[in-house]
Each structure stands twice: as C-alpha cells, then as structure tokens.
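README: folding subset

This subset contains proteins for which both the sequence and a predicted structure token string are available. Records are stored as plain text. Below is the entry for Esterase (234 residues), shown exactly as it appears on disk.
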Amino acid sequence: MNSFTIDEKKVTIYQANTADVPVIYLNTVMEEGNDKIYEILKQQECPEVTLITISGLDWNHDMTPWDAPPISKNAEPCTGGADEYLNFMTKTIVPEAERRITGKISWRGLAGYSLAGLFAVYALYQTDLFSRAASISGSLWFPGIIDYVFSHEMAKEPECIYFSVGSKESRTRNPYMKTVRKNTEQIERFYREKGIQTVFQLNPGNHFQNAAERTSAGIGWLLTQQKQESRQKY
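--- output ---
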C-alpha cells in the first residue's frame, strides 16, 4: 500500500500482486473503510486489480455536477464542483498515481458510493478515461440528473456499468430520496437499451448498511465482465 497527498486529497494505492491489470479509482467520503473493501475483494478471489482510493474530498462540492438545495432540514447544499474536481483528478491525481504503479494498465474503472456514485455516472459524460463504472447506492435522486442522462451524450460508451440501491432507500417521505430506486432503474434500463452491458442490484437495507460489502460487490462485478471492443458514441 502506498499513499500520498495532493491538494489535501489523500490518494492510497492498493497495488496488485501482478502487473498489467485493471485500475479502479474509488472516491470515498472517508478512508476508514478502504482497507476492508480491498480485503473483501481479495477474499472473493476476484481477478487482480490495483485499487486507488481518493479521500479528503469536499463531498457536497466535488461530487455534485451542479448546485442543488439541501434535501432536508439538517443537510448542506450541493455546490456543483464535479467538473472542477474531475479535471483535477484526471490531469493531476491519475497521472501521479499511475506513475507509481508497476506494469501497464489493461483498463480503468471508476466507482463510488452515494454522491460518488452520482459522480461516477456524470464523469462518463465528461471524459473517456474510464471504460467501466459502478454507481453503488448512487445518489441518482439528484435533481436534474435523470434529464441530463437522457439528453446528453457520453464522451465514449463504456463497456459496462453497475448500479445498486438499498431496498429501503426509497421508503421515505423525502421528495428527493424517494425517487432513488425509480431513477436508478430507469437510468440502468436506458443504458441497457443502448446496448451497454449493465446490471441493477437491489441490496437489503437502507443507504448506510454494508457499504464496504456493497462497494466490493460493485467493483467485483466490473472485474468479472468480459472485455469488449470500444463502442462508438450513440
């Protein structure tokens, strides 16, 4: 394991035991669960992967594509810094991280939980750097995201995308959160009908249950899909 810090962002590299393997980037709200995620991946006997986690994020800014009001009384507003952060991530964090990796990279993936799951989907529209993505309990309730997905073109169609939500996440009176399962299923179906390989997983529990296990499951799914030829824009 190798860690470094850039602009207050902590980047941790969980280097694979072999060279020439995929690299998956995982934006996280806290770093405490990252060791557990990597250990679960190894226990699942997934294909070899180098996992790169990024923490120390300004969560409601870095992970959100545009401004949005607080979704509840005690919540903070979202301030739409995803473009700025993605530019920093792809031009500064990724090159520095990959300079420290042994061997070649067979493909890159992007994964995230909650708002980072929203970011993983949005990023596919802004950059062609990632060929696979996982939106794990992703915040696809976010105002305007479903209209954006349906009306914009990806930078490059990915090989596959993983989606999941908790079975209790939409059981709420909150007008934003109650749409999360419906929106996620509609977005997954939209991509599937475009010919992209997708899956939707309904996990038991609410948004905060078994985050490390859910994240590992999403990353594991990405790792086990057969590599496809690059697709053209739709």
